[in-house]
Amino acid sequence: MVSQKYGQLTQDWRDEISQGFAECFRVLKPSGVLISKWNEDQIKVPQILALTPNKPLFGHPTGRHGRTHWFTFMKEAV
User: Fold this and answer.
1) Burial, 75: exposed, middle or buried (Cβ in 10 Å; 0-12, 13-18, 19+)?
2) Model pTM?
């Protein structure tokens, strides 16, 4: 049921997420803000953050069990 609603990661999920981050930062204006949400039921946050050279300004866990994390990134000014 969950995979029907939200989809599921393929075997090359690392490449897909890395490319997704790269595209977000490519189109983001300098000093632009990107808010990202991740639930770590299957894949832990450090594995996801390792897929981008951009580090979040801050983040925090939410949800009943603290497995959903929100992160705020900012693209550097040119």
Assistant:
1) middle
2) 0.85
